Amino acid sequence: MKKVILVAGGTGNLGLRIVKALIANNAEVRVLARPNSDAQKVLLLEKLGAKVFKLDMNNVAEVTKACEGVSCVVSALAGLRETIIDTQKVLLDAAIKAGVKRFIPSDFSLDFTNLVEGKNRNLDLRREFYQYLDQTNIEATTIFNGPFADLLTDQMPMILFKFHKVLYWGNANQKMDFTTMDDTAAFTAKVAVDETSPRYLRIAGDQLNVKEIATIMTQISGKKHGLIKAGSVGFLNMMIKIGKTFAPAENDLYPAWQGMQYMRDMVEGRVDIAQHDNNRYPEIKWTSVKDVLSAHLSRI
Predict the structure, then answer these.
(1) Which of 80, 79, 77, 114 is nearest to 92 (CA)?
(2) In the prediction, which pLDDT does 273 show?
(3) Rounded to an integer, what distance in angstroms lies between the CA atom of residue 135 and that of residue 168?
(4) pTM of the model
(5) Which residues form the NmrA-like domain (predicted)?
């Protein structure tokens, strides 16, 4: 019998990938969407075989009805407090009322369990929600995957492709985890249908430092890539304060200072993971940073 999995945020970038991966794992997929969701994205989900429920995401009764008969709820919601706290609480409360056994929150981030509270707004919101989640009796699994490797090609200002340089802060030997969105989605789908998954799982498609990234770029581009140190971690913290003061953009999901907070957490060493869970599902073939960058260079 197919397991019924409900995905919230299925019209988003990661959410759509999770839906595809769930269908590939022979799951029956339901997707929650707001009434004003992109019609083309909803149509695509339906063509893939998912059943889309258009409803008020803040209405516990409506969400509870959609959760009936579901074995696991996967949240791929993205946003600030209104979404990560308020809407996810509605989703969680509805799942519990409907008798759903398992819940996967929308963490998909750096491992924030050892980070200092108050230093990263977006991760603080996730921490606040999981404190609420852990007060319930539903079985939950949080997936920590580090930053998405896909971001190295554009949104993460680390590789300066035009200048053949790799920008870094702090220690050039600090290892960082990178996982593609597709690999994260594939792993999440396995967890969703796995009734034995633990409270926390940590994955990384690749682990490397900026020196190794520069070496990879040199190998695949044929052009020597060097390093540029932007400053110390202390200087980065000062830049974050300046950014929050003069360009707060508090309603933006990823203002410049938020990206700096993620970078600071990556290079500070607090998110180092001693043991990953990559081998939990051996059928997953992990994508390396070299794979990601090679594919990107072939397109430009």
Answers:
(1) 77
(2) 87
(3) 39
(4) 0.97
(5) 1-224
Element (H, E) at 2: none
Distance CA 251, CA 83 (A): 12
Q: Is the pLDDT of residue 1 over 90?
A: no
The two three-digit tokens of residue 62, written as one number? 């409506």
Class of domain 4-145+180-202 as given by CATH: alpha beta
Residue 272 has pLDDT above 90, yes or no: no
To the nearest whole percent, how much of the chain has pLDDT over 70?
100
**pLDDT for 83-116, tens place per residue?**
999 999 999 999 999 999 999 999 999 999 989 8
- Segments of the chain assigned to CATH 3.40.50.720: 4-145+180-202
274 has pLDDT over 90: no
Which CATH code of 3.90.25.10, 3.40.50.720, 3.30.750.200, 2.50.20.10 fits the domain covering 149-176+206-299? 3.90.25.10
16: enclosing H helix or E strand: helix 13-24
